[in-house]
Amino acid sequence: MYLTAAVFFALLTTLGAGHPTHRERCPLSSYQTVLPSDITAARQLQNQTRVSLKCHQGLRLSSFPECDIKGNGRLRLTLHRVSLAVRLLKNMTKSKLVLRNLELFGALHETLLCNTSHSDKVPTHPVLESCTDHLVTYTKDTSAGCIEQDILMSLVWLLIEDMRFLVDEDQLGREAKISAPQL
């Protein structure tokens, strides 16, 4: 009986809050303070971007208030957008500035992948599906030049706003875990 209860409790905590070792192995807290030099590198890359095209900024979640979601949904949306940035940076001419940003966003991509790997079994929410569909449609229907411009103009936003939101949420989750009664 006790063994069954223990297994059931372990399954509930794993499915409900994610496997604890994932958060410990892939802490988002390493992005709690983004180094000024990293922000400068992203800004310099943005400054090199020619804003010659009239493009809609479809990658920023602030453009779509309904996509301002929390938890695994936010993590997945941020992962999708960071994946686009990494893919673009890999295809750009390899200058020191591009390589620096590729290293930074590549590491961020790996951390986000590690944090979302446990949530594949969690059913998706309709709002998350709608927001993901928006990003997929946007990247299919928008010209390559506009997507490149949009991604490059969103680098600092991804580093500062999205990561701050995810780190704060991760910290709250850790504090709740620490203050939760131990059984």
UniProtKB/TrEMBL annotation:
InterPro entries: IFN-lambda_sf, INF_lambda. One of its GO terms (biological process) is innate immune response. One of its GO terms (molecular function) is cytokine activity. Keywords: Antiviral defense, Cytokine, Secreted, Signal. It holds the Pfam family IL28A. Residues 1-18 form the signal peptide. GO terms for cellular component: extracellular space. The keyword Secreted applies. It is found in: Secreted. Belongs to the lambda interferon family. This is Type III interferon 1. It comes from Xenopus laevis.
